[in-house]
Specification:
The complex is a heterodimer of chains A (354) and B (200). By secondary structure, chain A is mainly α. Chain A has 14 helices and two strands, in the order ααααααααααββαααα. In chain A, a hairpin with a 2-residue loop joins β1 and β2. Classes of the chains: A mainly alpha (354), B mainly alpha (200).
């Protein structure tokens, strides 16, 4: 009885700001999408440099914090899942970082390097498939067998065109943030989900608009190493018949949405309940350790979590210093090491599926 | 004696085969393939210009140099798809496994009587769509894109109107022709049009 009263009170507390905030949230999403598309279309290279400088490090810190939020205090039945996830993230990251080093030191042929990339992509797919299996075992009436044919089909595409598969990851990764936001809203603000999903239509529309406007434009000038790196990252070398202006703009637009989700939407739209109590301040305070179950729990690890977040903060500052001293090299290093956060998103997203 | 005669005949026959190299196929004369590069060109009629000018971007020139040296430079999308037989075999094998496992899974899901869940339905639709589109693309060459002639179809009108036209072009290095002193040649794919505007 008391629990029912508490639940009703919580619903009352929560429902009013739900409706007030929903419109603001959708409006913010529209403004961000349109502003991002405009900036990405008009000044792709310049905005790319500024965006990566400002947001690359902090968004990784927020991702780390979010993943810690989703970690259970004890793995329990999920031990195999989490162990596979952590081992996979670590080993795939090390392998990914080793690839360019091996390429330089061993003098591989172009074909050999493509085979190495294809192998890495295959390992990534095998790891993802294993995780899906572990996850499906934890859910009743769930059969993870459907993932096998899809994984094999993706593997086949990867072996045909390993570089295009890698480019696909570059473009798909920013969209994963939108999926995280969807799952997050389902848990914390289910009333917002229909409006959010409708507003997602803006993404393909905006991408379509960018394609329409920039299809026939001249490719961007690559008169220095940095501009060349940015266009290569967007796939200018793999898709020479597409204007690099279009490629960089579309990629930058998606990246900006990705940063918007990780830096604004997810941190600000924290849960209304902390444990069983309603949050005092409706805007989440990301510096409060109380909102992290693994730190709040009596058997949790508050000191370890605090240390991890502080080290993360130091890395963000170091990244800014690096960008200030040598932007191009730091960017290269960042995008190589940042594969860790790309891979780490997969198990945490899977864990959010009921 | 008879055996010796047969053996002698066989030896002579074998020697004659060696001498005339009868088992060796006539060597194929493979014409040397011209070096080529896929890029784009803009044709601009300019009333103020005094000379016809061909401008090539530095990056395009670099790609052309790479193509001449046989290095992997900017290649067309189609050419980025595997040319390696090993990778093609692996990809084919994996595609075979994908289709096989997909079929088994579909049959098993329907036989279990539980039908398909939402995620599984999406997976099934995605798999069938990929297979269908893939097959359709291979059969109809749907991945070939619009023909290069499409962009050039309005060139005469655009030139007459003083407007520029932009379209794909293949930069090709051809052997020297002793009978011609022309340094470069631009061929535009234009088709004659019928009075009703359709291509002949």
């Amino acid at each position: 009885m008391q629990e029912a009263v508490e639940l009703n009170l919580t619903t009352l507390v929560v429902n009013k700001p739900f409706e007030q905030g929903k419109r603001m949230f959708v409006a913010a999403l529209f403004v961000c999408a349109i502003a991002s598309a405009a900036l990405a279309g008009l000044l792709p290279l310049q905005v790319s440099i500024v965006t990566v400088f400002l947001f690359a490090g902090p968004h990784n810190w927020f991702e780390l914090r979010y993943f810690i939020t989703r970690l259970p205090v004890r793995f329990g039945r999920s031990r195999a899942f989490f162990m596979t996830a952590f081992i996979g993230v670590a080993s795939l990251t090390v392998a990914y970082i080793s690839l360019p080093l091996l390429y330089r030191t061993t003098g591989w042929s172009y074909e050999a390097s493509l085979t190495a990339i294809a192998l890495w992509n295959t390992l990534l797919l095998a790891w993802l498939t294993t995780l899906v299996f572990f996850r499906s075992k934890q859910k009743p009436r769930s059969d993870g067998a459907w993932v096998i044919p899809i994984a094999f089909a993706l593997c086949a595409f990867n072996w045909l065109a390993p570089e295009l598969f890698g480019l696909m990851l570059v473009y798909v990764h920013p969209l994963i943030a939108l999926w995280f936001l969807d799952k997050h809203l389902q848990r914390n603000r289910p009333h917002w989900v229909p409006a959010y999903r409708r507003s997602l239509l803006l993404v393909p529309l905006t991408v379509g608009l960018l394609v329409w406007q920039l299809w026939g434009t001249d490719s961007l000038t690559e008169d220095n190493g940095l501009f060349w790196r940015i266009t290569q990252h967007s796939g200018a070398e793999l898709l020479p018949q597409v204007s690099s202006h279009l490629l960089v703009s579309v990629h930058l637009f998606l990246e900006m949405l990705h940063y918007f989700v990780w830096l604004l939407a997810l941190p600000l739209l924290g849960p209304f309940l902390i444990g069983r109590k309603a949050r005092q301040n409706l805007l989440a305070r990301f510096w409060e350790l109380d909102s992290l179950p693994i730190a709040r729990h009596p058997r949790g690890f508050p000191k370890t979590v605090a240390a991890m977040l502080l080290v993360g903060l130091a890395v963000v500052l170091l990244l800014w210093v690096g960008f200030s001293i040598d932007y191009a090299t730091t960017r290269d290093v960042y995008f190589t090491v940042a594969i860790a956060h790309v891979i780490a998103e997969a198990p945490f997203l899977m864990k959010m599926f009921q | 004696m008879k055996t010796l005669r047969i053996v002698a005949c066989l030896v002579v026959l074998a020697l004659s085969v060696v001498l005339v190299r009868a088992d060796i196929a006539k060597p194929k004369t493979t014409p040397q393939e011209n070096k080529s590069l896929y890029t784009s060109i803009e044709v601009i009629p300019d009333a103020k210009a005094t000379d016809a000018r061909l401008q090539i971007r530095q990056s395009t020139l670099n790609d052309l140099r790479a193509a001449l040296n046989g290095e992997p430079g900017n290649a067309a999308l189609a050419s980025t798809i595997t040319r390696s037989s090993t990778r093609t075999i692996i990809a084919g094998l994996l595609m075979f496994l994908s289709v096989s496992f997909g079929g088994v899974w579909l049959v098993r899901a329907f036989r279990s009587g539980q039908g398909l869940r939402r995620t599984e339905k999406i997976a099934a639709i995605a798999l069938i769509a990929v297979a269908t589109f893939g097959a359709a693309a291979i059969i109809t060459r749907g991945n070939a894109g619009p023909p290069p002639t499409y962009r050039w179809r309005n060139l005469p009108t655009a030139l007459a109107g003083g407007q520029s036209t932009y379209g794909p072009v293949i930069l090709e290095i051809v052997p020297d022709d002793p009978n011609s002193s022309i340094g470069m040649k631009l061929t535009i794919p234009l088709k004659k049009q019928k009075p009703n505007g359709e291509d002949e």
